[in-house]
Amino acid sequence: MPGRLATLAVAVGVAAAQGCAYFSSISSLTPEERTEVRRTLRVESGRYLRLSYNVTAFYGDSTRLLLSPHEPEELLLPQPDGEPLSPGPVQMVLPAGRPAKILDLEFPSALAGVVRPWDMPRSQPWVILGVKYEEDEKDKLADEVADKPRPLVLLLRPNLASPEEVEAEVDRYLSKTDVQPLLEGLSEGMKVAIRRKTARLDMPATALEMAWGYPERKEIELGEEEDDRKEIWIYPGALRKAVLVKDRVVSLEPEPR
């Protein structure tokens, strides 16, 4: 019994800590600002995926899918029992440049704190998206009940403080203009790598971003000469790293296949 009580106390403590973290991240936007930025984004004619994205299950929600530039092992969600939850394996890659439509924008709020279960990313704004699918993709991502593609959820960073910050964050992931001109300037091998969401040596920085997404942080190393500047791109959990010199990838972890 003491062991069970101790386990329960740990679980309750973690849940309480998560609850405090959640309520500290509730959007500071006023209800009017949230309504206005939702309206602004929803009435747009459309966007384009600025990066290539993995499509996975959306944690405990079987009615939606998660759209993320990260790998599933970089998206572990803490749970009250202490066991992190993975969103699930990659079901598909949607390449940069794919047309998309913003269907809605859901902010963390006191109500969302009640409605959103523990096995969901509760503290982040959710962009609800519809994407233009190829015919063979529709069946793979269809809802088993409704027999139609499930909406995608793109997670934004928490604590966005103004409508301008929200729109700028959305723009980082969803371009207002077609990104095909950027892709056309790349070699066929680079374009294939981006479509497959894989990095390769000699990629320019813009192509690496489109393939792997934005790093969690960048470390800069300066040498004696100006050309010795080295950038190290580190992704969540340090599970992926890229070293760039002169705006080109010179090494990757894990090494490319």
How many structural units, i.e. domains?
2
How much of the sequence lies in strands comes to 15-25%
Structural class: alpha+beta
The helix/strand series, from N terminus to C terminus, equals: HHEEEEEHEHEHEHHHEEEE
User: What's the overall geometry?
Assistant: globular
Count of separate DSSP helical elements: 8
User: Mean pLDDT, nearest integer?
Assistant: 85
Secondary structure: helix percent: 25-40%
Q: What's the number of extended β-strand segments?
A: 12
Largest β-sheet summary: 8 strands, mixed
The span between the termini is: 51 Å
Rg, alpha carbons: 20 Å
In words, what does this structure look like?
The chain has helices at residues 2-24, 31-42, 110-115, 135-140, 163-173, 180-184, 188-196, 205-212; strands spanning 47-49, 53-58, 61-68, 92-94, 99-106, 126-131, 152-155, 174-175, 217-221, 230-234, 241-245, 248-253. By secondary structure, it is α+β, with helices and mostly antiparallel strands. It has two domains: 2-178, no CATH class; 185-253, Beta-lactamase Inhibitory Protein, Chain:B, domain 1. The strands form two sheets. Strands 4-2-3-7-6-5-1-8 form an eight-stranded mixed β-sheet. A four-stranded antiparallel β-sheet has the order 9-10-11-12, with no helix packed on it. A hairpin with a 2-residue loop joins β11 (241-245) and β12 (248-253). α7 (188-196) packs parallel to α8 (205-212).
Detail the topology: elements first, then pairings.
Blueprint (H helix, E strand, L loop, with lengths): L1 H23 L6 H12 L4 E3 L3 E6 L2 E8 L23 E3 L4 E8 L3 H6 L10 E6 L3 H6 L11 E4 L7 H11 E2 L4 H5 L3 H9 L8 H8 L4 E5 L8 E5 L6 E5 L2 E6 L4
Parallel strand pairs: 3-7
Antiparallel strand pairs: 1-5, 1-8, 2-3, 2-4, 5-6, 6-7, 9-10, 10-11, 11-12
Helix pairs in contact: 7-8
